[in-house]
Amino acid sequence: MNIISKVACSLVEDEQRNIIDIGCNRGYTLIEIKDNFRQLVGIDCSEKALAVVI
Amino acid sequence: MKEAKSKNIHFLLARAEELPVRSGTFRIAICAETIEHVSSEDKVLDEINRILEDRGKLLITFPVWHTEKIISFFNKDFMSYSGHVKSFSLAKIQQLLNKHCFKIIKKNRYYFEWALLYTLEAIFSKKFSGCNGRLRSYEPSAMPDNWDKLEFLTKRVIKFLESIFIGRIILAALNFLYPKTYIFLCEKEP
């Protein structure tokens, strides 16, 4: 896990567990932490980057 | 909204300055390797503040100003080919986060290895013609081999350093002196 993923997972406190990644690129971080959160949203302005993960 | 291969992840095509998300809906926001690419960091931070709950957490990164200056010294085109619109000093970052009501809980410096790689790229790319100032590219035709070798070698050295006690001390010092990224953990003030 990269540093960002590790810190994000350490912030999980309760059942709410939602997270947004602004500038998610190809969703690397979200994919890495998906099991630790209930709902994850990734936002990016590059259609090309998002096309890889959708 | 488009769904990823994993069912709990959703992806949206949007600009960071206009997030298509309801206010106060998120507990945690990540904004990594992004703010240096936008023209209005104030708008982005306003938007992040809007979508976070009170006392929500923001995990944000900024490229290190002095590292970018050194890389730019070796390759004047660094800022343009990296797509970075601007650099931020530590004082400016802290001022910016405070202005947008984010209390800094923790800050750190990371990714010496990437700072080193970008610096080597800036130095050595001049030796190769036709690679547009870069050793690596998202285009398969543009000399990916050189970058791959450099990256492989750097990662091997870092892995070795991480495996020994003295190596970890050296790495901590290098991360302090020549980091690529500042990472801030902040809390939205109500």
Describe it for me?
- The complex is a heterodimer of chains A (54) and B (190).
- Chain A has 54 residues and is an alpha+beta fold.
- In chain A, 39% of the residues lie in helices and 20% in strands.
- In chain A, strands 1-2 form a two-stranded parallel ribbon.
- The radius of gyration of chain A is 11 Å and the shape is elongated.
- Chain A starts with a helix and ends with a helix.
- In chain A, 37% of the residues are buried.
- With 190 residues, chain B is α+β, with helices and mostly antiparallel strands.
- Chain B has one domain: Rossmann fold (3-Layer(aba) Sandwich).
- Chain B is 43% helix and 22% strand.
- Chain B contains seven helices and six strands, in the order βββαβαααβαααβ.
- Chain B has a four-stranded mixed beta sheet with strand order 3-4-6-5.
- The longest helix of chain B has 20 residues.
- At the A-B interface, helix 1, strand 1, helix 2, strand 2 and helix 3 of A face strand 1, strand 2, strand 3, helix 1 and strand 4 of B.
- Strand 1 of chain A pairs parallel with strand 3 of chain B.
Order of helices and strands of chain B: EEEHEHHHEHHHE
Main sheet: strand order of chain B: 3-4-6-5
From N to C, what is the helix and strand string of chain A? HEHEH
Q: Biggest sheet of chain A, open or closed, and with what strands and sense?
A: 2 strands, parallel
- Multimeric status of the protein: heterodimer
Estimate the helix proportion of chain B, in percent.
Answer: 40-55%
